[in-house]
């Protein structure tokens, strides 16, 4: 497979994942017209239409679905072959690319990384900001080796490429409000969901994780609650600092809030599904360093 062909197929997989030329072109680091021309040439060479385009949406044709799944498998096998070849020559690649949402504070992940570096001192860890829903395509393209997703509840854990991608729940955490020790709710054992309408609330920005944010808003609406969100932070530490400064109460889970700062406490909030941490990896993964990392991840969660 020529490098130019590999890049073309990878760009098609990006488009099949995003179903939006603008977003796919941005991920591929090319212009939208260039991506459109690439896809047109690919369809011409195959003699079939891979996508249906109209003014409102973009969708894969049945042929496009078959080609997406097939080319994703070929690229995955190609990457696996390269790794096996390097290992046979005594040059095992100990680098790992991880897809994760940076906003979440995941102590389990940090512990697993530390343990991996003890076992593989020369290991190199590369982070990619990728949402859980995008892990399937990123894994099949070889962009990442392991995806650490954060979802609301556990129902979103299954990947689109279910046969090729393994998914497993790692940990879950209920929602809480971070508030001052002097707050009127500081002595409460737990708070109802309606509390989100009674005080100013600092939370994460929607752009951090749109599915989780939208899920929270939908749960509130279903319960007849209009949350008083006054600020959406893109960095968890900044949100916590705003809560300390009195801008509002911070909504989060243990993945984000961690240990409360001095003078603050965490009170559990009822009425929301827990935030769940999910690990995704290729089912046919052959590299020992990746397999060991996944095992360390679950071992850290069990401690």
Automatic annotation (TrEMBL):
Q: Which CDD domains match?
A: PBP2_LTTR_aromatics_like
The family note in this entry says: Belongs to the LysR transcriptional regulatory family.
* Keywords of the record: DNA-binding, Transcription, Transcription regulation
PROSITE patterns according to UniProt: HTH_LYSR
Q: Which GO terms describe its molecular function?
A: DNA binding; DNA-binding transcription factor activity
Q: Domain HTH lysR-type: where?
A: 1-61
Q: What is this protein called?
A: LysR family transcriptional regulator
């Amino acid at each position: 497979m020529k490098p130019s062909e590999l890049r073309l197929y990878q760009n098609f997989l990006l488009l099949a994942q995003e179903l939006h030329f603008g977003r796919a072109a941005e991920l591929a680091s090319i212009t939208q017209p260039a991506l459109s021309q690439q896809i047109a040439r690919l369809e011409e060479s195959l003699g079939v239409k891979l996508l249906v385009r109209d003014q409102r949406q973009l969708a894969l044709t049945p042929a496009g679905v078959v080609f997406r799944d097939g080319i994703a498998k070929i690229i995955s096998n190609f990457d696996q072959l390269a790794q096996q070849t390097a290992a046979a020559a005594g040059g095992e690649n100990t680098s790992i690319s991880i897809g994760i949402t940076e906003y979440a504070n995941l102590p389990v992940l940090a512990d697993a990384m530390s343990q991996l570096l003890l076992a593989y001192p020369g290991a190199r860890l590369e982070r990619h900001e990728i949402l859980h829903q995008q892990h399937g395509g990123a894994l099949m393209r070889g962009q990442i080796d392991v995806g650490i997703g954060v979802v609301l509840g556990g129902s979103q854990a299954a990947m689109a490429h279910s046969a090729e991608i393994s998914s497993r729940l790692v940990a879950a955490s209920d929602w809480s409000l971070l508030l001052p020790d002097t707050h009127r709710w500081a002595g409460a054992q737990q708070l109802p969901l309606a509390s989100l309408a009674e005080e100013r609330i600092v939370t994460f920005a929607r752009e951090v994780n749109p599915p989780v944010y939208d899920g929270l808003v939908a749960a509130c609406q279903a319960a007849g609650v209009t949350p008083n969100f006054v600020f959406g932070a893109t960095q968890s530490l900044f949100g916590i600092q705003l809560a300390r400064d009195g801008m509002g109460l911070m909504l989060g889970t243990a993945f984000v809030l961690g240990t409360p700062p001095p003078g603050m406490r965490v009170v559990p909030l009822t009425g929301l599904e827990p935030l769940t941490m999910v690990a995704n990896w290729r089912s046919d993964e052959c590299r020992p360093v990746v397999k060991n990392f996944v095992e360390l991840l679950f071992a850290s969660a069990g401690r």
